[in-house]
Amino acid sequence: MADTTLVGAAPTHPTTAQIAAAIREERARRGKRAALLKHIFLIITSLVMIYPLIWMLASSLKPDNQIFGNLGLWPSELRWENYTAGWNAMAVSFTRFFLNSTFVTVLSVIGNVISCSFAAYAFARLEFSGKNIWFALMMMTLMIPYHVVLIPQYILFLKAGWVDSYLPLIVPRFLAGDAFFIFLMVQFFRQLPRDLDEAAMIDGCNPFKIYWAIILPLSVPAMATAAIFSFIWTWEDFLGPLVYLNDMRDYTVPLALRSFIAQDSVSAYGQLFAMSVLSIVPIVIFFIIFQRLIIRGIAMSGLK
Amino acid sequence: MAAVTLSEVRKSYGGLEVVHGIDLEVKSGEFLVLVGPSGCGKSTLLRMIAGLEEITDGTIAIGERIVNDVPASQRNLSMVFQSYALYPHMSVRKNLAFGLTNLRMPRPEIERRVAEAAKILQIGELLERKPRQLSGGQKQRVAIGRAIVREPQLFLFDEPLSNLDAELRVQMRVELANLYNRLGTTMIYVTHDQVEAMTMATRIAVLSKGNIEQVGTPYELYNFPRNRFVATFIGSPKMNILEANAMGGAATVADFGTLPVVVPDGPISVGIRPEQVLIGRDGDLVAEGKVTLVEYLGSEIFVHLRLASGRDMLAKAANTAQHKIGDEVSVALRRESLHTFDANGLTAPRATTTA
Amino acid sequence: MNKFIRRNLAGYTFLLPWLIGFFALAVGPIVSSLYLSFTDYDAVAAPSWIGLENYEFMVKDRRFWKALSVTFSFVVISVPAKLVFALAVAMILDRGVRAIGWYRALFYLPSILGGSIAVAVLWRQLFENDGLVNTLLGVVGVDGPNWLSDPRYSLTTLIVLAVWQFGSPMLIFLAGLRAIPQELYEAAEIDAAGKFRRFFAITLPLLAPVIFFNLVLQMIEAFKSFSGAFVISGGKGAPLDSLLFFTVYLYNEAFSYFRMGYASALAWVLLLIIAVFTAVAFWTSKYWVHYENERS
Ligand SMILES: Nc1ncnc2c1ncn2[C@@H]1O[C@H](COP(=O)(O)OP(=O)(O)O)[C@@H](O)[C@H]1O
Ligand SMILES: [Mg+2]
To answer: Which residues form a coiled coil (chain B) (predicted)?
Structure first.
């Protein structure tokens, strides 16, 4: 209520424009000092935010005895051996883990983008009976924690003989399992003018052709956003591999990292950090390249 | 080229009927304009013909074929949209060729048609551009080009000129008329602008609230409107309407006196076009009034008048007339230029004049 | 009939993968999980019906209550803290900050990395007895506790981890703040409304839908969080179950002890808790969330 009275009152004020101009001037004067304070705050906050990550990077290059009790970031000597030794520290080399992760991630991303864009196209562009109900149900699945469906899914995949393979991780991705991506794409598709579909219809396209020749090419940013998020989340996924993969040769990178701590909780911290750093390198690279898309994607979908 | 026949065509959204049983015959090779105020159902009707909207009831035939269940792509027609609807990710050339590629037409034939359309519409040097690099007028040409390469039996236009500025609109109007004369294909053209309708149509269908009010040539609609809606909708500036009262074959029009009419007793209205309102005393009915505003248009002048009773009229006068605001003038009407509408707004037959 | 098929064919064809997934991987599992929650099941022998026994056991299960209280504490503390922080930073970033793109990206980075095992591993080391945090505290003369082995402090590490990932609600707040017309603030300033008044009279009410949205989302996320707690607590909720998140307890019951029936009952309780929290948020929202295009 209070805000509406404020808004209502302003235009009737006789010298609104002048006062506003004066305020802008005053603001500009005060602006400089405020801007400085803001920047100091922001810089300190960023440093605090980023410090742990830098510390991890620095520690990955330090000898083990310099990691703890030591604030300094610069190692006395650069221990690149942490990387080479860490890479082969376990019974199976990290080459294998990275290949496994890449395999699962690439297929998951493809599955996600295809199946979710299918569903999104149906929801955003096609008419069919029951559409609104299905859409509501789809949105409800956003709420369901993975833990709730995990056990029955596990039993299902166990019976199918899929445990200890990548199928339980990949097949659901081809069944539009992540409603978040459907929602993101629906939001995007809805912005495209309807006339385009209709012009294409008259130009002889059926719905499949419209999806393929009109909607997809115009949705590259949305597809890319979905692909990037899908990449990041699959790469980081821990619970799925934890449940379904038991043989170390099948491990993905996060699973391998976690065995790393479990297997020797004592000494090789430098190596542990080295592998931790490597495990997030793909994500950081993706983030640096695509941060615009990622940030726009968050604002667009309003999710996660 | 094909005729289009609509019979008893209806459309409802949810429970709400927006097109009420339309019967319309579009002759082969005709330029038919659907005109009416916005929201009256023109687009809906056109989209039903196009196959973009399902028909709730009735039948639509293109040529001999009933197309109710034929998808848009198989109706052999082209449509030009108000928003142009050019595919943003394709070059102009691809935009033009897209429909033809979908028909699996041989490449040389596609190229021939694209080149020909580009020549007709003078868009040859734009072919490699993307739509966002085109001006409004150029987009419009490409949209039309995309329609003509198909060489369809029927063209549909939904307010194609309304996104253009006034000057371009006049120019494109002429070009569209030329295009029609050149191709001779059946065209159905939707607009809310009666000037567009009058200048381009071979026949016009006037729509209002989901009903057809009248179908006829521009001449027929202008001179013999079937009812008051058509009479006031067609013609610019609008026809003057004077409320009147009929009693025993004579109508009393305030300010002007009485005239013979052929309508049942009761409240009626009498209409007269501004160019037939004469300033002076040279008419069958005369009233006194005052000039309230003069609009000089160059070729003619609009004189706004207020009669003694306080009602306003508009007269169109020659550009040589010398009227000033405040002038006291006489206003004369000739009986043969009056339109009489009964209580329901239907045009009444003319009274055989004697007096 | 033919018409009906034609009208629906394309839509359902495109929807088909999702429909299969929806029934096979969401509805089916939820229903069978309800069934399993009334059974004793070890994933090998056939499930045997035991009625309400799992639920009766749950009521008396100390670890269940512990897991609930740990999870609730985590949600109730971390979500508001994260949102307040996100809003504060978003407001500072909102208008006329140079290099905003930089800050935005930097602040968002932890949200992207937060779910990774690498960060969980890092966190564990940060809060070690002689880890970075205690070293830093030592510099200012505070003798830091033993974060990871003292049950009084262990949850703090995870709360800090959650707040550290304030980036995505911040981005959503930023988008929301952008949508508030600048003139409102000028009008308020002319009416001599101070900074706080402006915040409470304009920003907060106009941002209410966004706050609500973030709240629901972060709550659900917090209830679901798993990998950080799992790694930091050594997979078991240690020390002394002080990090026994509901999800961690559930995982262990199911996949360490193969008590699938009991774990299913736990899963259903989790689902209900999240549903209730979401419903309460929606239900109360009508008292404090007013949408702009709403007529009153
Ligand atoms: N998809 C729709 N759903 C509901 N009502 C519609 C829809 N499309 C059009 N209408 C209604 O049908 C009427 C006719 O619309 P339209 O044919 O677009 O009018 P016109 O093109 O003459 O301006 C309008 O009252 C409009 O509100
Ligand atoms: Mg229209």
So the answer is: none
